[in-house]
Write a structure and sequence with these properties.
By secondary structure, this protein is mainly α. It has 2 domains: 1-61, no CATH class; 62-313, no CATH class. Helices cover 75% and strands 0% of the residues. The protein contains 13 helices and no strands. Helix 1 (2-24) packs antiparallel against helix 12. It is globular, with a radius of gyration of 22 Å. The two termini are 34 Å apart.
């Protein structure tokens, strides 16, 4: 049942995202309108449930800890892809914005394309989305999560802003936008990885003195009762209508009033979806890991000792 809960969380989240795409980008009815053409969306949920049952049944040959690591590996891939995506989009969009400011873009790509790149919908569809796809492709061939490198880029971008402002008296809106874009990604995308390593700040009185099985019970119940509902609320309310907090800005490629800044404001709303999905998946993995620790699986015990030793060393 715990395997089914974890994998159903993964597959039903995928079905929800598929329904969001079918409804708001293709204009098809949702699963609730089954009698009015919502068959595709409803079929997605049915397939998701069948897939969850099949994977959970097949997973009985593996330990609960190994099952947890499979879901964590999926979380790590999404995080890697998201990090590379914001890296590529940030550099690409900042370069285009800088060339527009300096009136050099039309000389490179032509006046028509330069004019089109001044529209958020064109830049989002034909510049940002290919770079996002490239980020997830690159993530297939590397195992680094890039947290340290992204943090370094945030520092470099902020340093360039300070030097430009106070040394050369040169400042553009795109410089602030780039810092905000990468800074937001650093915290939201790293949250799930920090959760699996138990790196989040835990303010408690009793937990540190608990035995392993008691800690596992607290983590498992907390993930199901507190963590997973929070993520579902973000996803469901954020994708409920065309004006919702996640779907609305993405549909309109929402942009700030700075016409010569970066055209990436709508991506900040997408960050919330990535945060919710990765955290939801990791909470599902956390349930399985807690069950493995409760049962005393050797792999789970070794992983617990590793994380505890890293915490004691200050990692």
């Amino acid at each position: 049942m715990l395997r089914l809960l974890a994998w159903a969380t993964v597959t039903l989240t995928g079905a929800l995202l598929l329904e969001t795409y079918l409804v708001f980008w293709l204009g098809l009815p949702g699963a609730s309108a089954l009698g009015a053409g919502g068959t595709a969306a409803a079929l997605g949920y049915a397939v998701a449930l069948v897939a969850a049952v099949a994977v959970a049944a097949q997973g009985r040959m593996r330990s609960l800890h190994a099952e947890s690591e499979l879901i964590s590996a999926l979380v790590r891939y999404i995080a890697r892809g998201a990090f590379f995506a914001v890296l590529f989009v940030g550099i690409g969009d900042a370069l285009v914005s800088f060339l527009r400011i300096e009136q050099a873009l039309s000389g490179i790509v032509g006046s028509q394309i330069a004019s089109d790149l001044g529209r958020t919908s064109f830049r989002g569809a034909y510049l940002h989305m290919p770079l996002v796809a490239a980020g997830f492709v690159v993530a297939l061939f590397t195992r680094t999560l890039g947290f340290i490198w992204l943090a370094l880029l945030v520092v470099v971008a902020q340093l360039a802003l300070v030097i430009g402002r106070f040394v050369f008296s040169y400042e553009q809106a795109l410089m602030t936008d780039l810092v905000r874009m990468w800074y937001s990604a650093l915290f939201l995308f790293a949250s799930a990885y920090t959760l699996v390593e138990e790196g989040h700040v835990r303010v408690d009185i009793f937990y540190s003195a608990m035995r392993l099985r008691s800690r596992a019970l607290v983590n498992g119940i907390g993930a199901v009762v507190l963590g997973m509902p929070m993520c579902w609320i973000i996803l469901i309310y954020g994708t409920a209508t065309s004006a919702s907090q996640i779907v609305g800005p993405f549909l309109r490629f929402e942009q700030s009033q700075q016409s010569y800044g970066m055209f990436t404001k709508y991506l900040l709303a997408v960050y919330l979806a990535i945060f919710a999905v990765t955290m939801l998946f990791q909470f599902a993995a956390m349930v399985l890991r807690a069950a493995a620790e409760w049962r005393g699986e050797p792999e789970a015990l070794r992983d617990f000792e590793r994380r505890r030793s890293q915490a004691e060393m200050g990692y």
